[in-house]
Design goal:
The chain has 14 helices and 33 strands. It has 710 residues and is α+β, with helices and mostly antiparallel strands. Among the domains are: 128 residues, Immunoglobulin-like; 122 residues, Golgi alpha-mannosidase II (Immunoglobulin-like, Sandwich), CATH 2.60.40.1180. The strands form 9 sheets. The chain has an 8-stranded parallel β-barrel. Helix 8 packs across helix 9 and helix 12 packs parallel to helix 13.
Amino acid sequence: MRIYPGSPYPLGATWDGLGVNFALFSERATGVDLCLFDSTADTAESVRVPLTEHTDMVWHGYLPDVGPGQLYGYRVHGPYAPDEGLRFNAHKLLVDPYAKAIGRPVRWHDALFGYTVGHPDADRSFDARDSAPYAPMAAVVDSSFTWGQDRPPGTPWHRTVIYELHVKGFTQLHPLVPPPLRGRYAALTLEPVLDHFRRLGVTAVELMPVHHHSYDRHLVDRGLTNYWGYNTLAYFAPDLRYSTSGEPLESVREFKMMVRALHAAGIEVILDVVYNHTVEGNHLGPTLSMRGIDNAEYYRLMPGDPRHYLDFTGTGNTLNMQSPRVLQLIMDSLRYWVTEMHVDGFRFDLASTLARELYEVDRLGAFFDVIHQDPVISQVKLIAEPWDLGEGGYQVGNFPVLWTEWNGKFRDGVRRFWRGDPGTVSELATRLAGSSDLYGHNGRRPYSSINFVTCHDGFTLHDLVSYNEKHNEANGEDNRDGESHNLSWNCGVEGPTDDPEIGALRERQKRNLLATLLLAQGVPMIGHGDEMGRTQQGNNNSYCQDNETSWVHWDLDADGEALLAFTRRLCEIRASQPVLRRRRFFNGHTAHDVVWLAASGRAMTGAEWRVPHLQCLGMLLPGEAADDIDERGQAVTGGDTLLILLNAHDTPLAFTVPDWPAVAGWECLIDTFERAREDAIVEPSAAYSLASRSLALLRAVPLDAGHRGS
């Protein structure tokens, strides 16, 4: 097959309507072969073409009459010298880092490893077997798609409510999704699914990883999978497994159809992305892509010992953010998902890793500089998971302007308060007010805090209040995996119970946690199924459980139905009350800002804040402090004055409601203990009976609105 010089850019495989330009970066390679395959069943390439053009360390060539759907891979020549950080092995077929579709996933076999598995010299040995029968393949794509009138919803941060979900797990058991579509991108386009989002009141879905990933071999050998997907193979390719057809071109089209449908429903799409490491693991991992293309360029190698990898992620390797080419790869990937796939933002897994230019975390690192200067990426929603597993990796509050963060301190503080830990009231108040201690020092806003009490990693909301101990035996690691300290509590009995009092307490604690989440300043994030009481039977690390343990169940009992209705009510209140969605921090200097109340109904004193056994608090939010803006940028002033009462004591409390100016009474909107009390009116300066371990939300009834009596 004749090949023409082509161009070094853009990187990847680019179809122009007449042929395909192939371009692959490798600084240290001595040669690159492009391999074409006729089908996924092929065990060897039908065509092997050397790329003789070499420009700016990019190997490139143009093939006419090649088009979308063409399966391809690379063989890269160079020295195999692990002790020098070089791991070239042209016997191994490699996936293009810029592959926009995967045509065939990994088929695990020892031939996928650059060394001889089991050899006494381990990875210093060399394996000459051809990996083509087992290796993943890339596919050329046609990027054309009819987007129609698709527009990003553009929901402001302060009005955002995020729903974290797994594409498969969320829809696999949905009774109104046709079986062929369950667990697929297409399921998220269906009206029953979209209706759930709308009625719940979420404005954005945060999809757990949809970049094509590979299952870990040790999991496959145990009959398990990498269900969560934090094991990326291809940063441009939507995961083939969530396509209804299983065809590479269709996987791209179906992803775009999903985004278009969600946008039409007013819902933004945020991707959970894993740019900190890849599927290739440590020095004993397989050679599938970057390791065989240019190991020393793509990965952080151990100083003085380049055979081994720096590992800030716990997965065996870390991408080399010191390399301009790695930065380019990530930025090109992000830009592609925004411009070509129309996504609205990203949540960066273990984002502290991306800031490690040297060993320490540098929050003003090159990655963040590049992000802020990019005219595309700087305009979308950016969320950091602000920690990694390396020294100094916990960086909550230290990311720069434009970034929001998963606020782990909100999660921990709220859990401690409702568990009844002493000395937690001051921390709770700070978190309810938007965590200004973390985000107020450098011009950031309350919505920099992504508030959550549960997420995919750890106990579900139901399990949080039902288990003290993790139950991860099904993961096959003798229950050693997963967090051992979850700030959980089991209300007296571990696991399921028939005791009505314990059951009622657990349901109340779930309502308490959800209410605290949705009434706090900042951006709330709900884990999928938590609004319906989803359980994983105590498994707090279900990353490998692609089964009913992790899937959302839709056959709700009475408690599940009630919790769903309660969550919808909370989201409705949040959306209608500007004072719950402030764009600026409370200044704490005026009475018309925020008032913290003791059970006496008076403002908290300095001494009361320091009482170690205090486990109750009132938060008064004057309506005139609201600072919302409408769709035209006009200020929205006023709004109701709200009073949030929280009691984590195990005994009831008579909480005196304040005699606030121009207030005729206080109407109960939410009471997590007794719904029948909702709509009741409490006189100013009267006592509100706040049950043990409960929360109440009251709305001020203005004098001019009349009043219906207590």
